[in-house]
Amino acid sequence: MKIKLRQETPDDYSAVFKLIEAAFKDHPYGDHTEHFLVDRLRQSNAFIPELSIVADLDGEVVGHILLTKVKIKNENSTFAALSLAPVSVKPSYQKQGIGGQLIREAHRVARSLGHQAVILLGHAKYYPKFGYEKTSKYDIHLPFEAAEENCMVIALAENGLDGISGMVEYPKAFFE
Questions:
Q1: What's the rounded Cα separation, in Å, for the pair 162 and 166?
Q2: What's the per-residue H, E or C state across 75-122?
Q3: What radius of gyration do the chain's Cα atoms show?
Q4: CA–CA dist 142, 150 (Å, integer)
Q5: Which residue has the higher pLDDT, 175 or 91?
Q6: Residue 81: which of 155, 138, 141 has the closest Cα?
Q7: How does pLDDT run across 147-169, given as a tens digit for each residue?
Q8: How far apart are CA 48 and CA 173, in angstroms?
Q9: What pLDDT digit, counting tens, does each position of 26-64 carry?
Q10: How far is the CA of 100 from the CAs of 70, 105, 106, 125, 153, in angstroms?
Q11: Residue 14: enclosing H or E segment and its boundaries?
Q12: Model confidence over 120-139: pLDDT tens digits?
C-alpha cells in the first residue's frame, strides 16, 4: 500500500468531510461533529493550509490531519502553539499506520514552518508513542473539563516548551 501524504486542496473538502464523519461515527469519545469543526476551522484565522494534510491512496483520500493555531496565555506572556484536531482515517483503513504517518508528517511540516509545540485532547494510550506528554507536566491547562491523561502536548523543537505555561486559548471556531 503506497500512501502519498500531501497538502489538502479545496477539491478534497467533500471527500475529507465524508471521511471525518465516517471515522468518528461510532467513536465513543468523539462528539460526532468533527467534520463540521474542520469546515469551521478552514474558514478561521487559525487555519494554516500547509497543515491540513491528506493521505492519498491511488487518488482516494483515506486519511486527514489538521493542525491549527492556538495560544497559550499566562498573566505575563502569550505563546503561539498548534492544536491537533482531528486526525481521521477511513474506517476500512484504520489500524494500518496511516494515522501515525499523518501525525509524523504534520509534525515535520509544522517544524519546517517554525512552530514550537502541538496541544491535543486525545487517547492517552495512542499519542504518547509519538512523543506527547501530559500538559500538566508543563503547567499548561485546557479551558474545559477533561481527564488529565487525555490533555497532551509535544515540543517540535528542542526546548520548545521551555518557559511555556498557562491556559490554552482556542479559536472561537472550536466552540461554535
A1: 12
A2: CCCEEEEEEEEEEEECHHHCCCCHHHHHHHHHHHHHHHCCCCEEEEEC
A3: 15
A4: 10
A5: 91
A6: 155
A7: 999 999 999 999 999 999 999 99
A8: 14
A9: 765 555 578 889 999 999 999 999 999 999 999 999 999
A10: 22, 8, 10, 13, 16
A11: helix 13-24
A12: 999 999 999 999 999 999 99
The SS3 assignment for 56 reads strand
Length of the chain in terms of residues written: 176
Question: How much is the average pLDDT of 73-96?
Answer: 96
Number of other residues whose CB lies within 10 A of the CB of residue 120: 23
pLDDT of 24 reads 87
pTM over 0.85: yes
Cβ atoms of residues 154 and 134 within 8 Å: no
Domain covering 4-174, topology: Aminopeptidase (3.40.630)
125 phi and psi angles, rounded to 5 deg: -100, -15
